Amino acid sequence: MGGIPGGARIVYVYRRGDMGKTLAILLASAFILIADDNGKPDLSGTWRASGDSRIRELTISPAGDALHVSESRNDGNSEWTCGTSGQQCDLQGGRKGTVSAWYNGPILVVMETRGGSVRKERVQLSSDKSAMTVELIPVVPPGKSEKVELKKQ
Question: 45-152 architecture in CATH?
């Protein structure tokens, strides 16, 4: 849901001789609209963990208004395509379960449910965009959270 950030409004007022001011206002407004990306980072690409971690590789690609995610983990692989507005989507392949994804500012939050277990993941891009941190939070059953750093390939 794009739009004008902060509910700002563009008001066009034309008076004879004010063409320079009008052009400056329109250009400034266009810059604000272009700069507003709703805080959603570009997570696309293949990301690989170094060392021994739960996640070995994560591939994220845009699929229209959704994300397509393939994840290679120590306990198996999962794949899903889902929008980022919190709707529930089925996991693809042999693994039964659902996933929901949404952005909380620049952080992608993923909630995955399989049988009686629920896991939350918080995915955050580094400031130089060369790495991402995935925080794995077991919700049901509750457990200790873990952070995994992945490097862009």
Answer: Beta Barrel (2.40)
- Confidence at 54, pLDDT banded by 50, 70, 90: confident
Task: Give how far Cα 77 sits from Cα of 18, 89, 96, 106, 137, Å.
Answer: 62, 17, 12, 26, 18
Cβ atoms of 121 and 136 closer than 8 Å: yes
**Which residues make Cβ contacts (< 8 Å) with residue 86, sequence separation at least 6?**
100, 101, 102
Total length of the chain: 153
CB 99 within 8 A of CB 82: yes
Q: What Cα–Cα distance (Å) separates residue 109 from each residue in 13, 15, 64, 121, 153?
A: 43, 49, 19, 6, 22
Q: Is the dihedral of CA 84, 90, 92, 96 positive or negative?
A: positive
Token readout for 109 is: 């939050």
pLDDT value at residue 73 = 85
Do 138 and 144 touch, CB atoms closer than 8 A? Answer: yes
Residue 51 — very low, low, confident or very high, per pLDDT cuts 50/70/90? confident
